[in-house]
Design a protein that fits this description.
Blueprint: H1 2-17, H2 25-34, H3 37-48, H4 70-79, H5 87-96, H6 100-123, H7 158-181, H8 183-193, H9 196-224, H10 232-244, H11 248-251, H12 255-266, H13 281-292
Protein name: Death domain-containing protein
Keywords: Membrane, Transmembrane, Transmembrane helix
Organism: Mytilus galloprovincialis (Mediterranean mussel)
C-alpha cells in the first residue's frame, strides 16, 4: 500500500513538472480567472484537438469536456498534451474561441516574466559577489596606487653632491681650526711630510695674502675710519731702525728690500730671506735687533 501511494505521488509530481516550458501556475491561474465556464470548456476542447484549425463542420461547443473548474482543465492540459510546448499554442486557441485580447495579455505576461528572469539571471549578475574584489577586470575597480614615472637616468644626484660638500667643508674647518689653535704643531707636520715645492708655493701664497691684508687694513683705517695715525707695527719698525742706526732710505732701496721688511714685520724672516744682492751690515744689525726684541725666534731661522 505504501508503495502505491509513493507511485501516485511521484507520478503527480513528475507529471506536473513535465509541462509547457514557458508557462507557470500564476499565468494559468490568470487565464482561468479571465474566462467564463463555457469559454473555458471550449478552450479545453480546442487544446485537446489535434487539428490546428477548426472547420465549420466541427465547431467548438465544449459539451464534451467535464464540468470542472477552468484551472483544473488548464492544469490537465498542461500535464498532458501541453508537455514540451510553448505558450503560443494556448494563445492561438484563445484567438480561436474569440479572445484575442486575452491572448495578447498572455504574451505580455510571458515575455515580461522572461525579461525579468533574464535580468535576474544575467543582467543583475548574481555571481558578481563570488568574484574577487581586487580584480582589475571589474569596471568599478580602479588601481588605488598611481604608478609614478620613474626617474630618468640623466637626473642629477643631489644627495651625493651634498655629501661631498659636507665632507669638504668638514675637512676645511678642521684644517683652519688646527691652524688657529695648534699653529706650531701644524707647521712641524707640514714641513715634515710636505714636499719642498709645496712648502715654497704655500709660503709665497701666504706672503702675498698677508701683504694684501695689511694694505687693505691700512687703507681701511685711513680712508674709511679716518685714522691718520701710523699703525703700531710701523712704529716698531721706526724704533728698530733708530736703534740699529739705519735710515729709511738705505733700508728701502729696492723692491726686494721691501719684501724683506714685510717678512721681518710678520716675524717670518730668515737668513735666506736677507741674503739678497746689496745686503749690508746695516741689515744685519736690523736683523739682530728683531731677534733681540723677540720678533724672530730661532725656529724660524
Amino acid at each position: 500500500m505504501h508503495f502505491s501511494i509513493w507511485c501516485v505521488v511521484c507520478l503527480y509530481v513528475f507529471g506536473f513538472i513535465v509541462c509547457t516550458f514557458d508557462l507557470n501556475f500564476k499565468e494559468l491561474q490568470y487565464i482561468a480567472g479571465q474566462l467564463e465556464p463555457h469559454e473555458c470548456r471550449k478552450l479545453s476542447e480546442s487544446l485537446h484537438d489535434k487539428k490546428l484549425f477548426t472547420t465549420e463542420k466541427h465547431k467548438l461547443t465544449g459539451n464534451h469536456e467535464p464540468n470542472k473548474t477552468c484551472l483544473f482543465l488548464l492544469l490537465k492540459y498542461d500535464r498532458s498534451e501541453g508537455r514540451g510546448k510553448s505558450f503560443q499554442d494556448l494563445a492561438i486557441r484563445l484567438r480561436q474561441i474569440g479572445r484575442p485580447d486575452l491572448a495578447g495579455r498572455l504574451s505580455k505576461l510571458v515575455y515580461h516574466e522572461k525579461a525579468r528572469e533574464i535580468k535576474k539571471d544575467f543582467l543583475d549578475d548574481p555571481y558578481r559577489e563570488m568574484i574577487r574584489k581586487n580584480s582589475f577586470m571589474l569596471d568599478e575597480e580602479k588601481p588605488k596606487k598611481k604608478i609614478s614615472k620613474g626617474e630618468s637616468e640623466s637626473s642629477f644626484n643631489w644627495e651625493a653632491f651634498w655629501v661631498c660638500v659636507a665632507i669638504m667643508a668638514l675637512v676645511g674647518l678642521t684644517c683652519v681650526g688646527f691652524q688657529i689653535f695648534c699653529p706650531q704643531f701644524g707647521k712641524r707636520l707640514w714641513h715634515r711630510f710636505a714636499s719642498q715645492g709645496a712648502i715654497d708655493a704655500c709660503n709665497l701664497c701666504d706672503d702675498e695674502c698677508s701683504r694684501c691684508w695689511r694694505n687693505f687694513k691700512l687703507n681701511y683705517e685711513k680712508h674709511v675710519v679716518g685714522n691718520d695715525e701710523v699703525p703700531e707695527e710701523f712704529d716698531d719698525i721706526e724704533l728698530l731702525l733708530k736703534e740699529s742706526g739705519i735710515s729709511k732710505e738705505d733700508f728701502l732701496q729696492n723692491e726686494r728690500e721691501i719684501d724683506s721688511a714685510d717678512l721681518l714685520l710678520e716675524g717670518r724672516a730668515t737668513n735666506k730671506d736677507l741674503s739678497f744682492k746689496g745686503r749690508t751690515d746695516s741689515h744685519d744689525r736690523l736683523f739682530q735687533s728683531f731677534m733681540k726684541n723677540g720678533r724672530i725666534n730661532e725656529y724660524q731661522l
